[in-house]
Amino acid sequence: MVIRDLQTNLGDGHIHHVLNIIYNCCRRIPENRVMCREFVVTLQEYSQSKNSEIQAHAFLALSFIVDKSEIHKISLNEPCLKFLLLALKSAMSEPDGRSRVGSYSTLEVLQGLNQLAINDCNKLLIVKLGGIDVLERILMEEGSNDEEKLWAARGIWQLAFKEENKVNIHQRSKLLKTLKKIRETTENCDVKDACSGALFVINDVFDIDEEFKGHTPTRGDRGPSSVKREDSPGHVEGHIMISYQHASQERMLQVKRHLEESEYNVWMDVDKMKGDILDSMAKAVQGASVVLVCMSHKFKESQNCRTEATYAFTLKKDIIPLMLQDQFTPEDWLGALMGMKKYYPMFSDDRMKQCLPDLVSELSDRGKREKLDLVVPLLDQVTGASNPTAHAQRQGGGTAEDDVDCSGGIKDDKPTGNEDGGNSRPQKAVDLVTWDEEEAGEWLRSHGVDTSKDSFKKVDGTRLKQIKQLLNLAPEFCLTSLKEEFGLGIWDVLSLVDALKKLSI
């Protein structure tokens, strides 16, 4: 009914209200966007109106409706964008937070500008007309709420994907200090993530839209524009990284399990990481042998995914595209990044099963993990537990305590060869993955960890191994998960981490 009203001879005032309703319906409820697809042409006509207010309403509605292959349809003109920025400033100045220009709230304009900034021409125009100044003001003002700061930071993040904008923003020391301060002091995880993302792109990621367009780095390509990776502690090197949007998580977990069964080290953000997400992502990209980029509309629209994939491209990492959506065509920045690379369709169970062997063949030895050979303590000696699988052949006298330290590794000061008169007693290596839940529980308790909680009932040797790898790969995320998922107190966490670090892997 509302849409049909647009196709009748209404006055400007009525058209303004109808377009505003459509915009808010599409902004708040994604399902409405599909329903409004058939009215793109009508909205386009209104976006060319001589009335800047009607133009703005039409562009805002279109920005949530157009298909991503139709981004050119939301290219703004200067009068329209000036109207939107004026409306934003007006809303910020009013006690009720609602503009006297266009009747928008601060949040409505911020979310609309973020959506319009998907168009690269709009990115440049927003900065040209002073949009950064307005976003900076929102971040700095004490009266701004968390949601307004969130969208202001996301706006800066989005704008910084254009190299020209990034240079401009990088020169704004006050803005950078504000982003850092908010990131360090806010208790809102989404606001922290947005500030981290903006800072990461501003400081580290090169523009993909122009600078790298048409250039697809080949395997082993390390040209002068590549960024040197520096070693970082607590980080697993040479893994396969899965870069995906969380709507694809279930399918990518299947791919992850298959690759791990094929003896690959796999890094995947299984749960939305807390803490410094971008820092963990950066370390994961830096240490990756190959990055699997899981392409879909949602991946392409995600600022986190764009940051991640662009960073991998910038470091000239080997990238293998996986297609997670049928009939999806990578365009814009994602199309430029992927170039003519061969992709593997994974959008259905059947296609995934067909392609996994080929993917493994493509990966070859990149990201392969060495066979896990752990030397562990004899649990029946150290803890009193019965553990037939852990018995080792021993020669000569002495006890298990003579050969192992409290962490389960061979003592570094143990004499070798003939230094002890030929009486060295080799310890039998035992795969950690052979431990069942009872044996893993005994080991945990022997290191002072309270395993009475239900969350420990499924922890076996394989799980201990995974926790150990996660501790090396993403220590902040691992520590948070141990506290929240397992309900461990700080002393239990410290005891477990200390024991895991001393395990010889």
From TrEMBL:
GO biological process: signal transduction
Domain of life of the native organism: Eukaryota
Pfam family of the protein (one): TIR_2
Region annotation (Disordered) ranges: 214-234, 385-429
Domain TIR span(s) in chain numbering: 240-334
InterPro entries: ARM-like (IPR011989), ARM-type_fold (IPR016024), TIR_dom (IPR000157), Toll_tir_struct_dom_sf (IPR035897)
Name the record gives this protein: TIR domain-containing protein
Species for this entry: Strongylocentrotus purpuratus
